[in-house]
Amino acid sequence: MNLLKAPPASVRRTPTVLIRGTGLLGTSIGLGLRADGHEVLLSDPSATAESIAADIGAGRILDAVDQADTGPGGPAVPEIVIVAAPPEATAAEVSAALLRFPDAVVLDIASTKAEILQLLLAQVRDEDAALTEADLRRYVGTHPMAGREKSGPVAARGELFTSMPWVVCPAVDPATGVQLSAPEAVAWAEEVGRRLGATVHHMDPARHDESVALISHLPQIAASLVASRLQQAPTSALALAGNGLRDVTRIAASDPGLWVQILSSNAAPVVEILYGLRQDVERLISTLEDPRAPGRQADIAQLIAEGNSGVARVPGKHGAPPQSFAVLTVIVDDRPGQIAAVLNDVARVGVNVEDMRMEHSAGHQVGMVELSVLPGRRDELAAAMTDLGWKVVLS
Ligand SMILES: NC(=O)c1ccc[n+]([C@@H]2O[C@H](COP(=O)([O-])OP(=O)(O)OC[C@H]3O[C@@H](n4cnc5c(N)ncnc54)[C@H](O)[C@@H]3O)[C@@H](O)[C@H]2O)c1
Ligand SMILES: O=C(O)C(=O)C[C@]1(C(=O)O)C=C[C@@H](O)C=C1
């Protein structure tokens, strides 16, 4: 069915979805939409990626019979196509999907948005290309602000998007600001995000790219730069690594191939931010070259305080105001089933866990399950867990 002529997205329907590109993101979306009752078709140039995605339950492979498109009553025809390909392949895949499935709404989820739209608009303007402005009515760019430092379908998680932002960037004509995506297509782009449990935000492609330069691309660069300092570090120094290093470097394990594409397509706003960072680093270097000279201690304190005020502005879950959670740590034996047992007992007490982290104590057969809860519930949970026989540490 053509979703631009169908009942609105808010009406409960489960359109058939084709996912083109079944890596980490495509497979995670497939798992999430399958759990929501959608029929999901999968397609990837890599037969391995496609069949792993199908094996772990993200959908079924778009096969030769589907591709023959035998019309009504025949094999499934996608009503929504989600392009989850690498950024540099995205515009071509979006364009191919718009042409091949002339009734489908086509979304992409690439990490940058302006360049993809530019490439699509260039095709529309190119008289030799088949794509028209009417086709673009069915296209909407989106960007799930959720991912992992791992790639490929094996790393996929159906719950990846729960409570995370899902940015919807309707296509706009950059010269006039006129929206090119049809409102019905935009409504389906939002609905897909909501059905995956995400929180929907709207932004035009250029503002989106400026925003992610700061909140996504800068953190990746910072993590990579810090972690690259570790390459020559003595093993004895690395053995001392605590949570500080782990918190700052998790995403340094991200795929270089993906990040070459992301940073290249958003270089200008990233460079602007790096100029500011360079100034701060230079200021800190000269301060620390003589840290006891007059005014220098205040300078160091100011730099750390500026970080305090920046981090205090990072919102909590569902885009809620910044919230700091209270943490309690439950010490468990390092054996199977312990985390499940802890969470079971927390559920019995009736306290919602906002975040959880597992740490192992080097050289000891114990693990530490760190539970973040609303500050007002921490003491109650600690008391109840202690009564249930757990060893609880408050931090
Ligand atoms: N990784 C993240 O954290 C994250 C988060 C949000 C958005 N994204 C975006 O999602 C997209 C996919 O990223 P990923 O992390 O799933 O990467 P991935 O490497 O895990 O998967 C990419 C998949 O695309 C396939 N592919 C390659 N060329 C293709 C083509 N021409 N057409 C269709 N598929 C093709 C690959 O075979 C692979 O299976 C990227 O555009 C990325 O910017 C990634
Ligand atoms: O959490 C991670 O591992 C991510 O890589 C997520 C992250 C991000 O910066 O938030 C990375 C790039 C994507 O475009 C979107 C999400």
Automatic annotation (TrEMBL):
Keywords: Amino-acid biosynthesis, Aromatic amino acid biosynthesis, NAD, Oxidoreductase, Tyrosine biosynthesis. Residues 14-322 form the Prephenate/arogenate dehydrogenase domain. It is an enzyme of class 1 (oxidoreductase). Residues 327-395 form the ACT domain. It holds the Pfam family PDH_N. The keyword Ubl conjugation does not apply. It catalyses: prephenate + NAD(+) = 3-(4-hydroxyphenyl)pyruvate + CO2 + NADH. It comes from the Bacteria. GO terms for molecular function: prephenate dehydrogenase (NAD+) activity. Its EC number is 1.3.1.12. Pathway: Amino-acid biosynthesis; L-tyrosine biosynthesis; (4-hydroxyphenyl)pyruvate from prephenate (NAD(+) route): step 1/1. PANTHER family: PREPHENATE DEHYDROGENASE, PREPHENATE DEHYDROGENASE [NADP(+)]. Belongs to the prephenate/arogenate dehydrogenase family. This is Prephenate dehydrogenase.
